[in-house]
Amino acid sequence: MSVRANRLAAESSPYLRQHQHNPVDWYPWGDEALERARREDKPILLSIGYSACHWCHVMERESFENPATAALMNASFVSVKVDREERPDLDTIYMNAVQMLTGSGGWPLTVFLTPDGEPFYGGTYFPPDDRYGRPGFPRVLESLARAWRDSREEVARSTQQLMAGLDRLSRFEPKPDAVHPDTVARGAERLLQHCDPDHGGIGGAPKFPNVPAFALLLRRWHATGRGELLDVVTRALTAMARGGIHDQLGGGFHRYSVDAQWLVPHFEKMLYDNAQLVPLYLDAFLATGDPLYRDVARRTLDYLQREMTHPEGGLYSSQDADTEGEEGKTYLWRIEEIRQLLDPETAEIVCRYYQVDEVGNFAEPGHSDRKSILHVALTRDELGRLFRRDPSDTDAVLERGRHALLAARNQRPQPGLDDKILTSWNALAIRAFARGAAVLDDRHLLDAAVRVADFLDAHLTRADGRLLRTWKDGVARHPAYLDDHAFLATACLDLFAATGNVRHLATARRLAEILLRDFADDEAGGFFFTARGHERLVDRPKVLFDGSLPSGNAVAIEVLLRLADLDDDPGMRAVAERALRLFGAQMEKQPFGTAYLLGVLDDFVRGPVDVVIAGPRSAPETRALERAAHAVYLPNAIVFIADPADAAEAASPIVLRDKAPIDGHAAAYVCRDFACSAPVTDPAELQRLLRG
Fold first, then answer.
1. What is the pLDDT of residue 318?
2. Nearest CA to 282 among 304, 300, 272, 297?
3. Is the preceding omega at residue 108 within 30 degrees of 0, hence cis?
4. Among 591, 606, 621, which residue terminates a domain?
């Protein structure tokens, strides 16, 4: 029997619209739901998730599509559905509450609130009956409805405790002596102790990419030359590249691995993971020269352009974990399918390389049909020896096989696409494309980065310069958050360095002013997640720790320090340094959660390296120096072009001024500690200067 569409049918979020035919009387977050809860004195059942989330789909099928469960929800609660990607403010507040209650978090997030929005109970996924050590959702609903009716004082005590805990989370005690190189060193050492020596990565199952942590360890290798630091980074990146978490055919990475070996992923693909992994793999390529890392980065960028890019240039949010209700259905293979597609010899080589056999390595829970997740089981040299062929021959066979399998996979039903465009995630993509353009020497990637920036400027920038959070089908919605403004500011600084176009610098400066005016905590330091004048919520969080995204506070501090260097602005430097001191104790105690901020601190204490190449931007000599500079792994370096044609630009930063070619030849200046080297015109000499 069909169910009449509920209020979510009018929403733009693909996640909310997935629930429009549930028998639950869903509301989007807003005054209508809150006023009804107050008027009828009902608690709010808040369900937060996102469209690519596998367990969100499971809970929908098991509970929200169940008429009996929906009847319990409708009778005793005002049910509100939120897309965490559209409303990270709500997700942050209520995820913090659930983590205080249960010690863990995740999605779907299920939180029970008073009519004023204050949490009193919550969890993540609840099964339809008691299983997995979790209470069944109907039992939870009945118990909480009874508690609201009969034990209001107990509910009030729980609410008071959670609200006090939320308040404490945004209070920090400054630790001035933590702004020191030893803080970075100690943080890296503590991270090193948790690295998996067998399979790579941090900890056991489940395993996430943890980009800021490995970027920090790579920085420490550069600073110290200690081989074990480089080893843990390359072990992780190689294992991920060879594992099932990496889409071996189409490029790009799934969200995380459920096992310690990186074999079995949750199959959703998120823009933010892939955008962050590209610069890390490129840095590893520069540090080691291993072409595997370069190729992984290239294929990830190709994937983003091929499958995730809107015709006007912005990038979509994610691809679903499920296809037609089955997890990973698009990506899994039976050996018979490969044998039917390829000639016998090619099929044998492909199946041995990707370890596809009759037994399979994956079955969806409750299903007996086993299939194979493609992963690299042999090195190219091992494969060559096994088949008594030169590795270059097997490489060619594998490439033909990969293209044939990908073409066949493209004919299958595809996972759902969340085609909303988010400002902060697109800013990460700008940085990935710009970094790829520099290291891979590919101007098309720089064009892609500029197109993303142009999209955000055209569709997600308000007349007053503030940003909006999300865009879909021609409509931009929701005031943007700290992450959106900070991430785009630093992306625009990358674009200015790459293009020399001062409009990108002007955008970064404007966004930095908004950070200081609307997000900064003038009393204690640091930055709030929401702007002044934002919708009144039960908490105004100050988010420090990295999650799936880098900390907005860390990136905001990075922006101010970069602009302070470019413009010699002591005011911005002072605000950034004050914030570093405010978060010093957390950097000391919790390096895993503050890895990105520790990288920013590393830049601060080591000082930036500005590489300024003076010469016409497109001239061969200038390009040769630029390529040489971008071929060196130097984590605190930024490369600029001082084109004489731009010399009249009044908006040009101080660091580019007074840099000129030498005797008509392009010249490079390496500036450290408020002093610049003598100009060099030879690319090899420039690399020697950069390598110190």
1. 97
2. 297
3. yes
4. 606
Residue 222 and residue 239: Cα distance in Å, rounded? 22
pLDDT digits (tens, 9 = 90+) for 72-101: 999 999 999 999 999 999 999 999 999 999
pLDDT, residue 178, reads: 86
Residue 308 phi, psi (nearest 5): -120, 5
Can you read off the two tokens belonging to residue 604?
A: 């601060």
Can you tell me which residue has the tokens 């994956």? 362
- With 0-12 / 13-18 / 19 or more C-beta atoms within 10 angstroms meaning exposed / middle / buried, residue 227 is exposed
The verdict on 582 and 614 lying in the same domain is no
Mean pLDDT of 617-632: 97
Predicted pLDDT of residue 646: 79
For residues 27 and 390, what is the distance between their CA atoms, to the nearest angstrom?
A: 62
For helices 344-354 and 391-409, the axis angle rounded to 10 degrees is 90
CA atoms 417, 420, 425, 430: torsion sign: positive
Contact 452, 426 (CB under 8 A): yes
The beta-strand segments (E) located in 276-407 are 318-319, 322-323, 326-327
pLDDT at 126 (0 to 100) = 96
Q: Residue with structure tokens 């020596």?
A: 197
Q: Count of residues for the chain?
A: 692
Output the CA–CA distances (angstroms, integers) from residue 264 to 124, 206, 233, 381, in the order listed.
22, 10, 21, 25
Lookup result for tokens 């259905």: 329
- Report pLDDT digits (tens) over 142-189: 999 999 999 999 999 999 999 999 999 989 999 888 899 999 999 999
- Print the domain residue range for 349: 329-414
* Structure tokens belonging to residue 534: 């934002």
- 482, HSE (Cβ side, Cα atoms, 13 Å): 28
Calculate the alpha carbon distances from 277 to 222, 241, 455, 485, 633 in Å.
19, 11, 23, 21, 16
Is the pLDDT reported for residue 532 higher than 50? Answer: yes
The two three-digit tokens of residue 54, written as one number: 């596998």
**End position of a domain, from candidates 606, 629, 658:** 606
User: What pLDDT does 1 receive?
Assistant: 46
Which residues are within 8 A (CB) of 233 and not within 5 positions of it... i.e. 6 or more apart?
A: 214, 217, 218, 221, 284, 287
Residue 2 lies in a domain: no
Q: For residue 482, which amino acid is it?
A: L
Mean confidence (pLDDT) of the chain:
95
Tell me, rounded to whole angstroms, the distance of Cα 527 from its chain centroid: 20
- Please classify residue 399 by burial: count the beta carbons closer than 10 Å to its beta carbon, then call 0-12 exposed, 13-18 middle and 19+ buried: exposed
If asked whether residues 295 and 339 sit together in one domain, one would say no
Please state the separation of Cα 110 from the chain's center in Å: 23
DSSP state of 239: H
Q: Hey, what are 609's tokens?
A: 């390296």
Q: Whose CA is closest to 586, among 175, 261, 112, 254?
A: 175
The reply to whether the predicted model has a pTM over 0.85 is yes
Q: Tell me, what's the pLDDT at 650?
A: 60
